[in-house]
Design brief:
Keywords: Arginine metabolism, Hydrolase, Manganese, Metal-binding. The chain is α/β, with parallel strands linked by helices. Helices cover 39% and strands 13% of the residues. The longest helix has 20 residues, at 67-86.
Length: 318
C-alpha cells in the first residue's frame, strides 16, 4: 500500500529548560529553502496550536514546571496524531522539546488501542524522570516515565504538590488509560547522559541501551537487528529522534542539552533505514533542534533535514 505522509508541526518548547526549540521547525524549513529543496511543499501538514506564551507565567510547580500547560499541549499533539493515523496518513512529527513524545505516543495508542507499540528512542538522554525524581523539573526529561506509567517512587527525592500529582496522573492517561508502551518494548540508542535515579529505573525495568561504543564495536546492523528481534511481537514501531543523540562536537551545539561522543549523521540515517525495512514503522518524530544555540549558523537543522529527507525517501520506497 502506498505511504501517504502528513507533516505535523508542533512548535512548542514549554517542556524544556532552555528556550528556542520552538524555532526548530522553522530552522528545518530554512535548511530546505537554502538547498533549493521543496520538501515542505510536497506534503500536507498541520500546525498544532501552542501554549508558548505560558513561559512568561510563574511556574507553580518546581518538580514539574508548567505541567498544566504541557499536559494541554500533549493532549493537542495526541489528538492530531490520532486523527492523522485514522485518516490513513503516516505522521512525521516535527516538534520543539521532547515532552511532545508523550502526546505522540498517546495518539498512536489512542488510534490503535489493541496494538502493541515498540519504541526506538534515539537520544543522549533517557527521559525517564518523573516529578518525584527530576532534579530540574523540566518535563522534556519525563515523557517516557509518563508513557510507561512509571513514577519511580523508590528514588523519590522531591515533594510533589497535590495539583502536580493530579496533572501527572492525567498525563499518564492521555488518550488511553494506562501505559502506552511496555518496558520490554522500549530500546534506547545513544543514551549517555543520565542521573542515578534513571540508571536505577533502567536497571529495574531492564531497558536495553545500545550505547554508541557498543554500536560501533558490534556493528550498527547487528544492534538494530537485535532490537528489532526484541520487538518481534510488536504490531508497530514509533521512532523518536532527538538531535542531541548526534555528536555535538562533530555536528553542532544547536540543541538544548548537547552531549559529546554521540552518533554521526550517517549512523543515524543507516539506523533509520534498517528500522524502516521492518515494515512496522507507524510514526517518527524529530525533536530538540535549537537554532538559537547553534554556533555554526544553522548546522543542526541542516543535518537534521538531511536525515529527514533520506528517511522520507526510504519510507516511500519501502
Amino acid at each position: 500500500m502506498k505511504t501517504t505522509i502528513k507533516l505535523i508541526k508542533n512548535r512548542s518548547d514549554i517542556g524544556a529548560g532552555t528556550r528556542g526549540s520552538d524555532l526548530g521547525i522553522d530552522a528545518l524549513e530554512i535548511a530546505a529553502i537554502n538547498r533549493d529543496n521543496d520538501y515542505f511543499n510536497q506534503y500536507p501538514f498541520q500546525d498544532v496550536k501552542t501554549h508558548n506564551e505560558t513561559i512568561y507565567n510563574k511556574s507553580t510547580s518546581t518538580s514539574a514546571k508548567r505541567i498544566e500547560h504541557v499536559l494541554e499541549q500533549c493532549n493537542r499533539v495526541h489528538e492530531v496524531v490520532k486523527s492523522t493515523l485514522q485518516e490513513g496518513f503516516f505522521p512525521i512529527v516535527l516538534s520543539g522539546d521532547h515532552s511532545s513524545a508523550l502526546g505522540t505516543l498517546s495518539g498512536i495508542k489512542a488510534a490503535y488501542p489493541d496494538k502493541k507499540i515498540g519504541v526506538f528512542w534515539i537520544d543522549a538522554h533517557a527521559d525517564l524522570h518523573s516529578p518525584y525524581t527530576s532534579p530540574s523539573g523540566n518535563i522534556h526529561g519525563m515523557p517516557l516515565s509518563a508513557a510507561l506509567g512509571q513514577d519511580n517512587l523508590e528514588c523519590q527525592n522531591n515533594d510533589v504538590s497535590f495539583d502536580t500529582q493530579e496533572d501527572w496522573e492525567q498525563m499518564k492517561n492521555i488518550g488511553f488509560s494506562g501505559p502506552k508502551v511496555l518496558p520490554e518494548n522500549l530500546v534506547y540508542f545513544g543514551v549517555r547522559d543520565t542521573e542515578e535515579e534513571e540508571d536505577k529505573q533502567i536497571g529495574r525495568l531492564q531497558i536495553k541501551n545500545y550505547k554508541v561504543a557498543e554500536v560501533r564495536y558490534r556493528g550498527l546492523d547487528v544492534c538494530v537487528a537485535e532490537a528489532l528481534y526484541k520487538m518481534n511481537d510488536c504490531d508497530m514501531i514509533y521512532v523518536s529522534f532527538d538531535v542531541d543523540s548526534l555528536d555535538c562536537d562533530m555536528v553542532s551545539y544547536g540543541t538544548g542539552t548537547p552531549v559529546p561522543r554521540g552518533f554521526d549523521p550517517l549512523e543515524v540515517s543507516a539506523m533509520l533505514k534498517q528500522i524502516v525495512a521492518s515494515q512496522k514503522v507507524a510514526c517518527i518524530e524529530f525533536v530538540e533542534i535549537n537554532p538559537l544555540l547553534d554556533t555554526k549558523g544553522n548546522k543542526m537543522a541542516e543535518t537534521a533535514f538531511e536525515i529527514l529527507e533520506e528517511f522520507t525517501t526510504t519510507l516511500l520506497q519501502s
